[in-house]
Write a structure and sequence with these properties.
It contains twelve helices and five strands. It is of the alpha+beta class and 246 residues long. Strands 2-1-5-4-3 form a five-stranded antiparallel β-sheet, sandwiched between helices. The radius of gyration is 22 Å and the shape is elongated.
């Protein structure tokens, strides 16, 4: 049973993430929200095309000690992660969250996952509490947000229930976001700017664009310059590729 304070905390997290203009912004804002509203300092954000690809993410977002944990994790432990076990996967898919304490209470872990917990989390890094939040991303991709803490009771029943509530709502936000900041900038252009981008993507010169849109060629040059600055593209070719990928 969630308390009023739990719902308020959930709304605070959603409010932090709802302003994200792109998926990279969302990742940063979500990790910051978990730190601010759940006092979680050691958080990672892994993403992949499928559930199993998530654990092979070569450039996850890391915060706190997860940045120091990452090299050893990638070299030795990613394939033994407790949250990649069938039991954890079923719980993540069905409820959006799995915790170390819940998985240990459900029965015996595979030997490799047990070794991951005992040697990597506990002995090496002193992380007695661990949980993973599953999110749905654009294009059917999946994310796992790892949360760790030295205190075994850091995430109690109320915190886990609140995070489960957040899983579906945060997925709804993330699924609708552009996957990169340049694509977000592209979506924020004016109607006329988008027309120029479309014609650049079709390979037209400034003179051709000016004739098509009944503009002065100097105006087209200014449009293109401002669009390149807004999207961070370094050339017309890069802008054209960005527009085509969108």
């Amino acid at each position: 049973m969630l308390r009023k304070a739990d719902y308020e905390r959930a709304f605070d997290v959603l409010e932090c993430c709802d302003t994200a203009a792109s998926l990279p912004d969302f990742k940063e804002q979500m990790v910051g929200a978990l730190s601010s509203h759940f006092a979680l300092q050691h958080v990672s954000f892994f993403a992949g095309a499928t559930f199993h690809n998530v654990f092979g993410d070569l450039s996850p977002l890391t915060e706190g000690n997860t940045a120091r944990m990452l090299p050893e994790y990638q070299e030795r432990w990613s394939r033994h992660d407790i949250f990649g076990t069938p039991m954890a996967m079923r719980q993540l898919v069905s409820s959006g969250l799995a915790s170390l304490s819940e998985l240990q209470a459900r029965g015996t872990l595979p030997a490799s996952a047990e070794a991951y917990v005992r040697h990597f989390l506990h002995a090496t890094w002193g992380m007695e509490c661990a949980a993973a939040l599953r999110l749905e991303l654009p294009g059917g991709h999946t994310a796992l947000v790892g949360m760790f803490d030295p205190r075994a009771d850091k995430l109690g029943p109320a915190e886990l229930a609140t995070l489960r509530l957040l899983s579906r709502q945060l997925s709804a936000i993330a699924r609708s976001l552009p996957v990169s900041r340049p694509k977000a900038a592209l979506a924020g252009l004016s109607e006329r700017q988008r027309q120029v981008v479309q014609l650049v993507a079709e390979g037209l010169s400034n003179a051709d664009i000016a004739e098509t849109l009944s503009l002065a060629e100097g105006s087209v040059k200014k449009y293109v310059s401002r669009i390149l600055a807004a999207t961070g593209c370094q050339s017309r070719m890069e802008l054209a590729l960005l527009a085509r990928s969108r």
